[in-house]
Design brief:
Length: about 190
């Protein structure tokens, strides 16, 4: 399959009108670029992200792109615990770990994860800064952020939500709750 798809190819694949695809692009819901001839083209990865974000079925020919999850916590034992639990529940997920905000920023830019599980308190760049960075970039703002903290308070929860996180859960983690939050995010 081509790495870039035309609006007509997407419309045929999704059984929608080509005008709908063009509208999604014009409304900045679906990321696209234009050829020198002025035709719209959508990267397969961007189409899959769009379909996941809007809870639309992914055609089988596109369902080969794994769901990417980045886990960020300055305690490697925590990231490993979450990675094992997510991997056991969803062996098809592409799971990565980072142990500081700077490494998380680098991985977010290169991996473009679908979900980021993010600790709020880390040395250097904290979770708030990482979340703001994720949500400020066109290439990464699609990522859902599930924040976590060992020091929950209404203020910290409100602040991370304002930074763009979908939710904030308390540590010690209820692994079933965390898995549920990740699944809701997709």
């Amino acid at each position: 399959m081509a790495s870039n798809l035309s609006t007509f190819a997407i419309a045929e694949m999704l059984h929608v009108d080509p005008g709908s695809v063009a509208n999604w692009i014009d409304q900045d819901l679906l990321k696209a670029h234009r050829t020198p001839g002025g035709h719209r083209r959508v990267a397969v990865e961007d189409l899959v992200q769009f379909l996941r974000k809007h809870k639309m079925p992914i055609p089988p020919e596109l369902d080969t792109i794994p769901i990417r999850v980045l886990i960020v916590d300055d305690e490697p034992a925590i990231t490993q615990l979450i990675a094992r639990a997510l991997g056991a529940a969803h062996p098809d997920y592409d799971i990565h770990e980072a142990h500081d905000g700077f490494r998380a920023g680098t991985l977010v830019a290169t991996l473009k994860p679908d979900v980021v599980v993010l600790d709020l308190r880390m040395p250097g760049m904290d979770g708030y800064e990482v979340c703001r960075l994720i949500k400020s970039q066109d290439a990464t703002r699609h990522a859902e952020v599930v924040a976590m903290t060992a020091y929950p308070s209404p203020e910290s929860q409100q602040q991370i939500i304002e930074c763009g996180a979908r939710t904030c859960i308390a540590k010690p983690l209820d692994m079933a709750q965390l898995l549920n939050e990740v699944e809701i995010s997709l």
